[in-house]
């Protein structure tokens, strides 16, 4: 295992820990969690910094591990559905960032596209898991939950993630993780 891979694994572990801890900022209140979307941030950042596979892995593990350790969000159907959503965020932002030219504006473009694809993934997973659990789910629920209720969280992500990534990149903090 190379030093770069070891650093990537350590950063992934840190991001999983952040995914577990950030929701405490909302008092682990599910109603506030679905507004501020704090668990999304580590998966998105991991995808940008380390690439699609690390982003996918952090997105898969964070909600399930948080559910198992802290019983919130409930494992089924919420954490199970979030697992697919967050994995999609991490994967797609990492893939897009890898494929597109390395320009600051394209970090924002990658983020917006990943957010849309992640929400679509959530909708598909929720359609299966929520219905299986007897939770009502339809197009209105999808649109309200994905785009209306989470507007404050989306705004936070659109401001914070590009600013963090661009700032850390320009200061050379992320140089140890290049070419992942």
Automatic annotation (TrEMBL):
The chain crosses the membrane at residues 32-55, 75-96, 105-130, 150-168. Gene3D superfamilies: 1.10.1760.20. Signal peptide: none annotated. InterPro entries: ECF_trnsprt_substrate-spec. The keyword Ribonucleoprotein does not apply. This is ECF transporter S component. Keywords: Membrane, Transmembrane, Transmembrane helix.
């Amino acid at each position: 295992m190379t030093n770069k891979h070891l650093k990537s694994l350590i950063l992934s572990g840190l991001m999983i820990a952040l995914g577990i801890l950030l929701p405490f900022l909302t008092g682990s209140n599910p109603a506030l969690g679905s507004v501020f979307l704090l668990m999304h941030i580590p998966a998105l950042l991991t995808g940008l910094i380390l690439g699609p596979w690390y982003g996918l892995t952090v997105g898969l593990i964070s909600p399930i591990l948080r559910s198992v350790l802290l019983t919130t969000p409930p494992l089924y159907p919420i954490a199970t559905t979030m697992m697919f959503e967050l994995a999609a965020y991490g994967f797609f932002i990492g893939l897009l960032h890898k494929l597109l030219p390395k320009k600051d504006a394209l970090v924002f473009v990658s983020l917006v596209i990943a957010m849309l694809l992640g929400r679509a993934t959530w909708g598909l997973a929720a359609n299966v898991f929520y219905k299986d659990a007897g939770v009502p789910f339809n197009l209105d629920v999808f649109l309200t939950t994905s785009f209306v209720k989470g507007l404050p969280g989306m705004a936070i992500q659109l401001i914070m993630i590009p600013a963090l990534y661009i700032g850390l990149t320009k200061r050379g903090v992320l140089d140890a993780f290049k070419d992942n």
